[in-house]
């Protein structure tokens, strides 16, 4: 299992140190949660903060856009150093146009589905996507409890397109990751589980070992 620590749970006053911690700890991606206060009832950080983090690690940046209009901001996140940009199927833009915009900047496109959105909603786009992110909490806040129901969608998406990577996000810890590994999840995001732990590197290794 690949592991993407979510910076949302890190200490924002020491971002460089927090990035070093997870880089030295062997993380696979850095997960960056962008919230606009409209698509979700919370505001986090945007492209300038991501650009400031970029020099502090060589790990791929996995940018999760929880914003109503991703299309017009894709260029900013590409310039800030995003390697993967994911946007919600529930956003207010046309998904084909957002994917085209992401590809035009040489970034890997990904789509996200909320817990109550059916897997079928991403089927028309799978051939163009690098990754599908299946939310296991309602987006907007870190530290929520893991929802089991959305895992049913992992197999449905894999059956439709075995080559697209599946990522899960929300409430992932040493226990819930095992369930994710069983259904074939490739990447897990963990915020609280990693950054609030006494030994973040040990948690990263434990999550990575799931499914091996
Ligand atoms: C929620 C975010 C998640 C969040 C996960 O809207 O997309 O990435 O940071 O946090 P934990 O691991 O604490 O549930
Ligand atoms: Zn996220």
From TrEMBL:
A divalent metal cation binds at residues 31, 33, 64, 169. Its EC number is 5.1.3.1. Its cofactor is Zn(2+); Fe(2+); a divalent metal cation; Mn(2+). GO terms for cellular component: cytoplasm. The active site is at 33 (proton acceptor), 169 (proton donor). Substrate binds at residues 6, 64, 140-143, 169-171, 191-192. Keywords: Carbohydrate metabolism, Cobalt, Isomerase, Manganese, Metal-binding, Zinc. Binds 1 divalent metal cation per subunit. GO terms for biological process: pentose catabolic process; pentose-phosphate shunt. Belongs to the ribulose-phosphate 3-epimerase family. PANTHER family: RIBULOSE-5-PHOSPHATE-3-EPIMERASE. Catalyzes the reversible epimerization of D-ribulose 5-phosphate to D-xylulose 5-phosphate. NCBIfam families: PRK05581.1-4 (NF004076), rpe (TIGR01163). This is Ribulose-phosphate 3-epimerase. It comes from Faecalispora sporosphaeroides. The gene is rpe.
């Amino acid at each position: 299992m690949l592991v993407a620590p979510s910076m949302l749970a890190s200490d924002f006053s020491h971002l460089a140190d927090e990035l070093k911690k997870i880089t030295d700890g062997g993380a696979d991606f850095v997960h960056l949660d962008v919230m606009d206060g409209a698509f979700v009832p919370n505001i986090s950080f945007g492209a300038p903060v991501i650009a400031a983090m970029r020099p502090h690690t060589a790990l791929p940046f996995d940018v999760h856009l929880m914003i109503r209009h991703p299309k017009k901001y894709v260029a900013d996140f590409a310039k800030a150093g995003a390697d993967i940009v994911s946007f919600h199927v529930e956003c207010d833009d046309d998904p084909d146009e957002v994917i085209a915009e992401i590809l035009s900047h040489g970034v890997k496109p990904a789509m996200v589905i909320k817990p109550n959105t059916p897997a079928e909603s991403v089927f028309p786009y799978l051939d163009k996507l690098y990754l599908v992110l299946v939310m296991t909490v309602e987006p907007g806040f870190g530290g929520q409890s893991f929802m089991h129901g959305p895992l049913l969608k992992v197999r449905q998406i894999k059956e439709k397109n075995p080559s697209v990577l599946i990522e899960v996000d929300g409430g992932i810890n040493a226990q819930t990751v095992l369930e994710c590994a069983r259904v074939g999840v490739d990447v897990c995001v963990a915020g609280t589980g990693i950054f609030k732990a006494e030994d973040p590197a040990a948690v990263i290794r434990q999550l990575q070992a799931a499914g091996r």
